[in-house]
Every structure is written in C-alpha cells, then in structure tokens.
Amino acid sequence: MSFLSLMGEHINLEVGDKTYKLAPLGFAEMAEYLLWYQYKEVEDAEKVTKSLSPEMRQKILKDTYDKCKNKCYKYTDSNGEEKTAPLSWEMQEVQDSSSSVEGLGYQIYLSLKINHPEIKKEDVSKIVTVKTFNDLFDKFMQLQGVSPLDQSDGEPKSGK
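RE: above sequence
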C-alpha cells in the first residue's frame, strides 16, 4: 500500500517560494491509482507509436487496450479452481509498481491534486526532485514516529 495513504495528516512541501500541501490518499485516489496502473501500457503505447502509420498505430493501441482491459488478479481457490478478481492493492505487481519511481510520482500527483487541483501530472517532476522527495519522506517518517536517517552515515539526524 502507498506510504501516502498511511499519512494521518497533510505534509507541507516547500519548493522555492511555494508551499505545496500533500494530502493523505483516500479510497478515491487509491482507486484512481489502480486504474492508472491497469492502463499504463496504453499511455506508454500512445507515446511510442506517434511516428507510426495511423493504421499500425491504431492496431497497436487497440491490442494494448484489450490486454489492459483484461488485466486481473488470477488465483486458485481452495477447491483448486482458477478464479479471477479485479486488480487490488494486495497484488504483488501493484505493490511493486507503487514503490517504483513512476508509481511514487503518480501517487504524489494524486496527493498534490487534492489541495492543488490545477496541478498536472507533468508538473510533479518539476516539484519533486530527489532532494524534495527526501524531505517529503523524512516528514512522513516523522509523522510515523520514526527518526529520519542521516544520509551520510545512516544514523538518526541530530536536529541540526
């Protein structure tokens, strides 16, 4: 599950002279993440097929869409029968995606969008850099009662 869904309160993230307020992710944002995850391949295919002929592009996009549309969680029930269920946060591949750079970026976008509806997905990479992400993660850890680690030696920061 996303660390942003575990936040109990808003976190302020200062970038230059602007302060952004990240909100905890709710059920709506978690569902939006799952939908993004499910159709992410279509988004990628749209980017990489721009230079192809319209016919070839349409075929690739349709095939990719059909593949994504049918993504589901496959499992074997206690009777040995193959079953399917909608994508969920319990799936390992969704958890892996949520901790990837791209997945974290999308979750941060969803979190920012709650208090800053004007934010676009493309804006996140300008707002959240490695430094601002480290600051954000430190603040999150403090909310959880954990001292952030000093990046130089792995020891808790001394409050300098």
